[in-house]
Design a protein that fits this description.
With 229 residues, this protein is mainly alpha-helical. It is built from eleven helices and no strands. It is globular.
Length: 229
């Protein structure tokens, strides 16, 4: 039953394999360029497994100790997983203890496959979902490991690498902008960040801006849903 589910799941993850290998290698090299031991990207890819947040974590590890800011930033970056989880409640029902790993290992790609693909007839759905999640995380861990080891052998000039984080957030923002029918939430976030930047300065504006954005969107969110509906 397990092997049959693995054979059924693997073809769906092949496109993810290509993307995760290259992204993972980039992440591993990036971590090494920042001066981290190869163990950091390897174990972070195993234990965190949240692509964009892992890049963000690298910079947070080099900054001052701010657990509240880290928690809020993580919530903001990965808030979409709340809705992923709600969507998958019925699908992950009655899959046994595998459910705990399915919850931990859910990423955009695994969600897309497990949510949209009809499990082939005769294949156990719990094991199918499980192997999709395991394979996708394995690709990311493999890519990160290769990048960490390559980063040990290749000397990379880390000058200007801090711009990677800026570029990452710009790409995430533009991706969300293109997916939105209305840009109320994006514009709200930009305006609040700009105001907080002017009030608190470039070194202290992040935490208050995230807090204000969170509360404002929590208030106007239901209204936006009603308009879309």
């Amino acid at each position: 039953m397990k092997k049959k589910a693995l054979k059924a799941a693997f073809p769906y993850t092949i496109p993810i394999l290509t993307g995760f290998l290259f992204l993972g290698i980039s992440y591993g090299i990036y971590m090494r360029a920042l001066g981290f031991s190869p163990l950091y990207p390897i174990f972070m890819s195993m234990l965190i497994f949240a692509g964009s947040m892992e890049f963000v974590t690298a910079s947070m590890l080099l900054s001052g100790f701010n657990p509240l800011g880290a928690a809020l930033l993580t919530l903001m970056v990965n808030a979409r997983h709340i809705f992923y989880g709600i969507t998958m409640v019925s699908k992950y029902k009655n899959v046994g203890r595998k459910k705990w790993y399915l919850i931990f290992g859910m990423c955009d790609e695994s969600f897309s496959i497990n949510c949209s693909v009809s499990v082939p007839e005769g294949v156990d759905k719990g094991w199918f979902y499980f192997w999709v999640t395991v394979l996708n995380q394995s690709y990311w861990v493999l890519g990160s490991t290769c990048g960490a080891l390559l980063g040990t052998l290749i000397k990379v000039d880390s000058g200007g690498l801090e711009f990677v984080m800026t570029a990452l957030f710009v790409v995430i923002f533009l991706d969300n902008w293109l997916k939105e029918k209305k840009h109320v939430s994006s514009v709200t976030g930009l305006l609040i960040s700009l105001v907080c930047l002017l009030i608190f300065g470039p070194d202290k504006f992040l935490l208050p801006s995230m807090a204000v954005i969170f509360f404002v969107l929590a208030i106007i969110g239901p209204c936006l849903k009603k308009e879309v509906a």
